Amino acid sequence: MAEQQQMSEEQVAELQEKIKNMSPEELKEFQKKQCIFCQIVSGKVQSRKVYEDENVLAILDINPANPGHILIMPKEHYSIMPQIPEDDIKHIFAITKSLSNASLRALEVQGSNIIVANGVAAGQRAQHFMAHLIPRKENDGVDFQVPQKTIPDKDLLEIKKILSESLGAKTEEVTEPVPRILPAPKKEVVEAEFSENNEIDEVEKPTKKRIKKDTKKKIVKPKTENKVTESKGEKSKEEIDLDDIAKVLGAK
To answer: Which residues are CB-neighbours of 91 under 8 A, at least 6 positions away?
Structure first.
């Protein structure tokens, strides 16, 4: 097998300049030609397909972290998650959920990891966005320990403010409560009228009729709940029974 010739510094610089001057459409087409997963989608490169529809392809990883390691990807070329339209990303993770359910039953595993490496700094190695579905068993040797760091509250509040403003949300300002001033009680005004003898007669105020309260308690009959009968058929393959949940939570 012939060795692949390495590009010279001049060729690398020329290629970088060419990429820099590309339009977004030209750059996307260039990336698709260089992307091995786009070639898998088009059928030019062989793969072990687990699921396929009009927009999504799921294949077995040829170098799996565990048996049954699946790669779920959009057929259209997107490098990172922010580029993917809302409907497409919802569909990708809906398929991921279904495949997780299927692997839980079929492979008799106790759980799964769903991982997205979004960007080079996050460990992304492929140019094509994908989600990793890794079936898990106890003591399988796969380690995803995430370090826990301590951050001061003022830094957390500052990060929260920055993220909220980025999302277009207004940050809530804490203000002192304003005391409520109640209006002064109104004085009763006695109405009067002049009699024929120029004497002032006080007009009697109408007395309020006493309303007898009904002391009899009303008996409210409790509403009877409609009994819902469950059909004794086979449960849906998409549902997870208590045994499956027990396996995920590690119950014996």
So the answer is: 55, 56
Widest distance between CA atoms in the chain: 132
CA distances from 197 to 61, 191, 200, 204 (A): 111, 18, 9, 19
Closest CA to 251 of 110, 116, 126: 110
Q: In degrees to the nearest 10, what's the CA dihedral of 75, 81, 84, 87?
A: 100
Measured at the alpha carbon of residue 186, what is the angle toward residues 180 and 192, in degrees to the nearest 5?
170
Tokens (6 digits) for 230: 């469950």
Report CA-CA distances (Å) from 139 to 104, 109, 136, 142, 250: 17, 12, 9, 8, 12
For the entire predicted model, the pTM comes to 0.60
Once rounded to an integer, what is the mean pLDDT over residues 138-161?
A: 92
| CATH architecture observed for domain 47-136 | 2-Layer Sandwich (3.30)
> Hey, what amino acid is at 192?
A
Give the pLDDT score at 229. Answer: 47
Tens digit of pLDDT for each residue in 198-235? 554 554 555 555 555 555 555 555 555 554 444 444 55
Write the Ramachandran bin of 217: left for phi over 0, alpha for psi from -120 to 50, otherwise beta.
beta
Please write the tens of the pLDDT for every residue from 9-46.
776 777 677 777 888 777 777 788 889 999 999 999 99
C-alpha neighbours within 13 Å on the C-beta side of residue 244: 15
Segment 111-138 mean pLDDT: 94
Half-sphere exposure of 211 (CA within 13 A, CB side): 3
SS3 70: strand
Query: Integer distance in angstroms from the first to the last C-alpha of the chain?
Result: 53
Q: Which helix (H) or strand (E) holds 9?
A: helix 9-20
Please report the pLDDT score of residue 212 as a whole number.
Answer: 53
